[in-house]
Structures are given as C-alpha cells and as structure tokens.
Amino acid sequence: MGIDMLNKLSSGLVKFSWGFCLLAPLFFVIPHATAEVSEADLEENVNSLSAEVDDLARDISLLERELLFPPLTRVQIYLSLATDVQFTPRAMTLLVDGDEKSFHIYSDSDVAALRLGGLQRFWEGNVAMGIHQLSALIKGVDKKGRTVEEEIHFSFEKKNSGHSIEIKISAEKDSKKPSFSVKDWGES
C-alpha cells in the first residue's frame, strides 16, 4: 500500500505542478491580456486545481498516518459510554507499560457525544510486539454528584498487525451504577 500511496502522491504533485504552471501566467500577465480569458474559465480552472489539491492533501494525510503508525506496531485505545449509565466521566489517564500515554478532561459536549453512542479514539500509538500492560484511571461523578474513581488493568499481546482495545463504561442491570470493563478487539 505504501508504494501505491507514493505513486499517487507523486502523480498528484506532478498534476499540481502542471496546474500551477498553467495558471500562474494568468495572474502575472498584462491587464489587457487577461480580458481574453473569461472569468468563468478562470474560476473553473481554479476549482479544478482546488479539487486536486484537496485530493493530494487527503493522500498525504493517509501516507503520514501509515508512516507514523505502521500496522506492525499500531495500537488504538477507544472509550465508550453506555447511554443509560448514571455516571459522567470528568477525566481519564491512560498508561501503557507504566508510561503515561494520554490524558483527557471531558467537557459537557464530549460527554454528550459519548452518551449518543460516540466512540472516542482515546489514544493511537506504537508499541513493540509482545505482552503489554494497559492501565486506565477514570474519574467522574455519579448521579448524586459523588466522586467516582476507577482504575482498570488489562494485559494484551501485540502481534504483527494493528491492535484495538475498547474501554467500556456501562451500567449494572439493576442499579444503573457504572461498570468498567475492557473489550479486546484484537488485531485489526
């Protein structure tokens, strides 16, 4: 996939360069010569060039992600919140093998998005193959405003492809109190 992305990238750069070379004279010509080029043609050329630049930016973003987080070492950690749980997360800290990897303070809009079924990509990073320890400290409040702190520990084995893990905050069936668990999606 990397070679294809590089080919697309180089092809896009060539198109962009040619488009720029073709359009650049339009901006620097003598005013009476610009009268010969209709405004509609110029706008069409600019829109076409803009679309090519957008495609190129998307390709560069995908290539950058592949280079920064290659599938061989990529791990993704997600957070979900059940709609019926009587718990509001306020902050979460994530550690992998004892090293802090991410910290987030939740705004009201973050919590609202999670309650609507959103899945937050909490952290994406690189880890070596082998067995690793994930720890998460989740702080929040229950429906009565009491502080709730929960620490989760989970071991996972990183193999030779991407790995995804979800930290789930759900409700106990009868009490609707928060229940914290980890779902290992495995290799992706």
Task: Describe the protein's architecture and organization.
This protein has 188 residues and is α+β, with helices and mostly antiparallel strands. It folds into 2 domains: 2-68; 74-187, Sandwich (Immunoglobulin-like). Helices cover 37% and strands 41% of the residues. The chain starts with a helix and ends with a strand. The mean pLDDT is 83.
How many beta-strand elements?
A: 8
Give the amount of beta strand, in percent.
Answer: 35-45%
Identify the CATH class of the largest domain. Mainly Beta
- The rounded Rg comes to 25 Å
Distance between the termini: 16 Å
Number of helices: 4
How can the largest sheet be summarized? 4 strands, mixed
Derived from helix and strand composition plus strand pairing, the structural class reads: alpha+beta
Helix content: 25-40%
What's the CATH architecture of the largest domain? Sandwich
* Strands side by side in the biggest sheet: 4-1-7-8
At CATH level 3, the topology of the largest domain is: Immunoglobulin-like
**pLDDT average, as an integer?**
83
Weakly predicted, low-confidence segments = none
Which of globular, elongated, flat, extended, rod-shaped describes the shape?
flat
Order of helices and strands: HHHEEEHEEEEE
Number of domains: 2
